[in-house]
Amino acid sequence: MKKICSVLAICAFMSGCATVNPYTGEAQTSKAVWGTAIGAATGAATGALVSNNHGAGALVGGLAGAALGGGVGYYMDTQEAELRAELASTGVSVIRDGDNIRLVMPGNITFQTDSADINAGFYATLNSVAKVLNKYDNSTVMVMGFTDNTGSAQYNQTLSQNRAAAVAAYLQGQGVKSSRFEIMGMGSSNPIADNSTAAGRQQNRRVEIKIIPNK
User: What is the mean pLDDT of the segment spanning 85-112?
Assistant: First the structure.
C-alpha cells in the first residue's frame, strides 16, 4: 500500500506542473514534465522491487527516475520558452519536435527575392536567436535553406545553400560557436505548401534552424 501511495504522490506532483504557451495563452504540460513523470514512475517501480522497505524504495527510486527523465526535456523546455518569448510577433515559428526545436523563418522577412543578403530589419530577430543559443550552448544548430520550385534545380540549390550559410554566419558573428553548426542547402525539396500557388511558393521560400540537444 505504501508503495502505491508513493507512486501516486509522485504522479500527482507531476500533474500539477504546466507551462503557458505565450502564443495561445493556454496551459500545457511541458515535455520535461512528461519525461520526469515517466522517469518517476519507472524509478518508483524499480525502487520498490530492489528495496526491502517497499515504500521507501518506491519514493527514492521515483525521485532518481524523475531527475533522469527530466534532464534533456527540461533543458529544451526552458530554451523553447525563452525562444517563444524572444520571437513573439517576429513572424518566426517555434515548433517543438520531441527533444528538438525548429525555428521556421519565412523568406519574405529574411531575404529579398533571389538574394542571399539578410534583410537589415531581420537582424534584431537573429540577435534574439543568438542570445538564446549562447545561453543554451549544449546543442547542435542545423541551418537549412529552402526555395520554391521556380528556376533550375542547380540555381535553387545554390541559393538555398547561400541563404543558410548567411544566417549561420550572422549567428556566428553574434558569438555562437562555429563548431556547433551544420549548414545545408535543400533547394526546392521538402515543400511545406503547394508550389502551384503564389502563397504556397512564398511559404516554401524559408530558412529553418533545428536545435538538437547534445546527449
Answer: 96
Q: Are 143 and 183 in contact (CB under 8 A)?
A: yes
Q: Is the pLDDT of residue 184 over 50?
A: yes
Among residues 40, 69, 84, which one ends one of the domains? 84
State whether 77 and 110 are in the same domain: no
- On whether the pTM is more than 0.90, the answer is no
Give one DSSP letter per residue of 44-108, joined into a string.
HHHHHHH-SSHHHHHHHHHHHHHHHHHHHHHHHHHHHHHHHHHHTTSS-EEEEETTEEEEEEEHH
The cell numbers describing 214, all together, are 547534445
Q: Are 111 and 91 contacting, i.e. CB atoms less than 8 angstroms apart?
A: no
With a CB cutoff of 8 Å and minimum separation 6, the contacts of 44 are 3, 6, 7, 10, 58, 59, 61, 62, 65
Number of domains making up the chain: 2
Rg (CA), the chain: 22
